[in-house]
Amino acid sequence: MELIKQFSLQHNNSFNIKTVSPILYQLNSLRDLSEIPDLDAECFYILGEGTNSLFVDTIAPVIIKPAFKGISISENDTNYIVNVASGENWHDLVTSCVQKGINGLENLALIPGSVGAAPVQNIGAYGVEFSDFCIQVNWYDFSSKTIKCLNSRDCLFGYRESIFKNEFFNKGIITEVSLSLPKIWQPKLSYLWLTGFRIEPKCF
Ligand SMILES: Cc1cc2nc3c(=O)[nH]c(=O)nc-3n(C[C@H](O)[C@H](O)[C@H](O)COP(=O)(O)OP(=O)(O)OC[C@H]3O[C@@H](n4cnc5c(N)ncnc54)[C@H](O)[C@@H]3O)c2cc1C
């Protein structure tokens, strides 16, 4: 685990707010999870890429930054199974899948932020949501100090909602997500904006 004192968050939030965290704990591997000190739930913040976070003071809370990396892909007869570490960038994941001919996530391209934050608000755009493909979220529980594997139903996904925004808020860290993307694919063009501009499937 990397520990950085007096860490400037100016380039880690999309408002470029000048704020300094007294300590940032950067988690580079799952082994680092056991080294997180016991923190009061009120005085720390789990930070992805900070695109949906607003710091309102010059002194920020202690930051825990999951920076786990890695993507692995397997397949069965009908689907690709994509396992992604939470520190990966969401748009890079979408691009990488589309370049490999694995389709389904394209409507969610260009949504800023990390993979780990995607389940938190169940990101969505143009008629498609993260939960449409999510089959598992691995979540490190601070209280039991174990990684729990939650299936999509356990995550209580709703419109920009999940268990991670509510009951599990600041109680653990999303370490990995698993997505299932069907091999037989139809672009989803039903969203009003897309049909209005007559985007052809070949554009994707
Ligand atoms: C220009 C712009 C366009 C956007 N467009 C869309 C859009 O089309 N659709 C949409 O749904 N959203 C959109 N958003 C919102 C944003 O993209 C999402 O909320 C994204 O998931 C934020 O990712 P992040 O890594 O920056 O999260 P952060 O801002 O770092 O964190 C957001 C929340 O997630 C928690 N969190 C982050 N990582 C973890 C983790 N590993 N474990 C546990 N909790 C974690 C944080 O504690 C915080 O509560 C947009 C934002 C911007 C600025």
UniProtKB/TrEMBL annotation:
Catalytic residues as annotated in Swiss-Prot or TrEMBL: 160
Pathway: Cell wall biogenesis; peptidoglycan biosynthesis
Cofactor dependence: FAD
Gene3D superfamilies: 3.30.465.10, Uridine Diphospho-n-acetylenolpyruvylglucosamine Reductase, domain 2 (3.30.43.10)
Top-rank lineage group of the source organism: Bacteria
Principal location listed in the UniProt entry: cytoplasm
EC code: 1.3.1.98
Pfam families reported in the protein's UniProt record: FAD_binding_4 (PF01565)
Localization: Cytoplasm
Keywords on record: Cell cycle, Cell division, Cell shape, Cell wall biogenesis/degradation, Cytoplasm, FAD, Flavoprotein, NADP, Oxidoreductase, Peptidoglycan synthesis
Boundaries of every FAD-binding PCMH-type domain copy: 17-184
Catalytic activity, reaction form: UDP-N-acetyl-alpha-D-muramate + NADP(+) = UDP-N-acetyl-3-O-(1-carboxyvinyl)-alpha-D-glucosamine + NADPH + H(+)
Entry keyword annotation includes Zinc-finger: no
Class of enzymatic activity (EC top level): oxidoreductase
Keyword set includes Cytoplasm: yes
Cross-referenced PROSITE patterns: FAD_PCMH (PS51387)
Record's function text: Cell wall formation.
Family label: Belongs to the MurB family.
Annotated PANTHER family: UDP-N-ACETYLENOLPYRUVOYLGLUCOSAMINE REDUCTASE (PTHR21071:SF4)
Descriptive protein name: UDP-N-acetylenolpyruvoylglucosamine reductase
Gene it is expressed from: murB
